[in-house]
Amino acid sequence: xILAMPVIxxxxxxxxxxxxxxxxxxxxxxxxxxxxxxxxxKYKTIKMLDRDIEFVPAVESTPNPENQVYGYDTGQRVxxxxxxxxxxxxxxxxxENSKSWFAAGWYYVKKHRVWKMTQxxxxxxxxxxSYQGPYHTKxxxxxxxxx
Length: 147
Prior knowledge:
Blueprint: E1 2-8, E2 12-17, E3 20-28, E4 31-36, E5 39-43, E6 53-55, E7 68-69, E8 72-73, E9 79-84, E10 89-93, E11 102-103, E12 106-111, E13 114-119, H1 123-128, E14 130-135, H2 138-144
Parallel strand pairs: 1-6
Antiparallel strand pairs: 1-2, 2-3, 3-4, 4-5, 7-8, 9-10, 10-11, 12-13, 12-14
C-alpha cells in the first residue's frame, strides 16, 4: 500500500512505500496530479485516489509562541516562520514584508579562521561561512557545539 503523507494541508502530499519516497500528489485547479517515477496521472477528485493510496491524517500542530520558530528561541517577535528542508534550518523574518531571512537558534559561525557563537544569524551568513547548529539554547551550544 502507498501512503500519502501531507506536506501542505489539502494541497500537496509525498507518497511513500516501505518508508521510501516514491512520488507526490499535487492539488490543482482542475483536479489532482499524481507523479510516481516518470508517470504522471491526473484525477478529477481525491476520492478516485483512495483506491490505491491511503491518506495519512495531518498531525495537528500546536501554534508556536511568537518568539520561537519550531522550538528554537529567537528572543524577538517572529514573522513568516518556515523550515528550510534542504538546509535543515528554522528560518524567519523580523518584519512582515522583510526580504532578510534569519536562522532561529544558536550557532557557531567560522569567520576568518575564528569560531564565534551567535544567536539568529542572517541566512546569507550561514550560506557563506562554515557553521555548526542550530542549537535550542546557549547552554546546549556551549556543551554540544564547541568547535
